[in-house]
Design brief:
With about 425 residues, the protein is α/β, with parallel strands linked by helices. The chain has 2 domains: about 140 residues, FAD/NAD(P)-binding domain; about 200 residues, FAD/NAD(P)-binding domain (3-Layer(bba) Sandwich), CATH 3.50.50. It has 11 helices and 24 strands. Strands 5-2-1-9-20 form a 5-stranded parallel β-sheet, covered by helices on one side. The longest helix has 20 residues.
Length: about 425
Amino acid sequence: MGDGSRVVIVGAGFGGLSAAVALSRAPVSVTVIDRQNHHLFQPLLYQVATAALSPADIAWPIRRILRRQENARVLMGGVTGVDTVRREVVLRNRRIGYEFLVLATGATHAYFGHDEWAVHAPGLKNIVDATEMRRRILQAFEYAEMEEDGHARQRLLTFVIVGGGPTGVEMAGAVAELAHRALARDFREIDPRHARVILVEAGARLLAPFPADLSAYAQRALRKLGVEVRVGTPVTHCDAGGVNLSGERLDAGTVIWAAGVAASPVADWLGVPPDRAGRIRVGPRLEIEGLAQEFVIGDAALSLDADGKPLPGVAAVAKQQGRYVAQVIRARIGDRAPPGEFRYRDAGQLATIGRRAAVVDFGRIRFRGWLAWWFWGIAHIYFLINVRSRLSVALQWLWSYVTFDRGARLITRPDDWPGD
């Protein structure tokens, strides 16, 4: 491991890894700390949850990614605090000193003051979430096959997705295709094509960050897949039997939460006030106000664009911020002038709505439909971290496109049937 200033990076997501790799030739010692031993390609997590891909297709060991970077080491552990006076990161059983600290800890689910809903409506942020969601979805069909009561069977075959952002839209389309296409001929007592998939959005339209015409297209495409879309309809209650909307009860066997996120507890670690989403406001060089050597990037940071609007919590922002912070650190240890203020170069927005339907927004250039779907697929394959994963995902998608089959339909931790 290299000598020099000690740089500690907490979080091995897009931002943290981008910062670590950008420091590979710098005269620093880099320590990457994460609770997991793998880096996760979150944009495709919903495909694990709907049995289109296996976890190994979108997750890679952090040690393998950084194994050729001689100035880097990896620690698997949970951070519990940061001592900015002594410049130490606090873990459960030890402390790690630093000269520069990069906090890239991402975000978790937000239930808008109703954390008790989490047990009934899981979100999707990691592999454990995805495999649990896959279990719930597939098990719903298995239970329905054994259920003799018609009302109970229909409840099991009702899936509610809460949140009309990219994750919710992609999840709704994937669940509909799983039920109406991939599973259509696999059962004898039930017809999976009769499953109800309902997408609920509190706002006025789906995909709010996208232009209105692309949002409208997404809604039409989902309805063609058989998804029931409810906009302007907030969830008021959630329990084991379903959800309450404004004046309506939806009995559902599976509820999936895609409605909001909250930053990890970085603000608590540092003792600084967060915004409503738990993010820490950072300066023009992504530093924490009043602290010289600590930076926050990605979903945990409230960083503003040139118009004073918060940057979105997407991978492109985190990656650019990670590379930028590495430039700032390199300049400081080299006694050089720091780079100019961070400016995000908009990489555009993409969302898929199922088979042969997607939307792409590059500002002045935007398109939709079959061509956008191919562009979405090629872009996601390109950004996968290694060749093996690119080939695996490409072959899985090609097979699914031709056969409508899903190759990862595994229930790895079955529950007892409710009737037992």
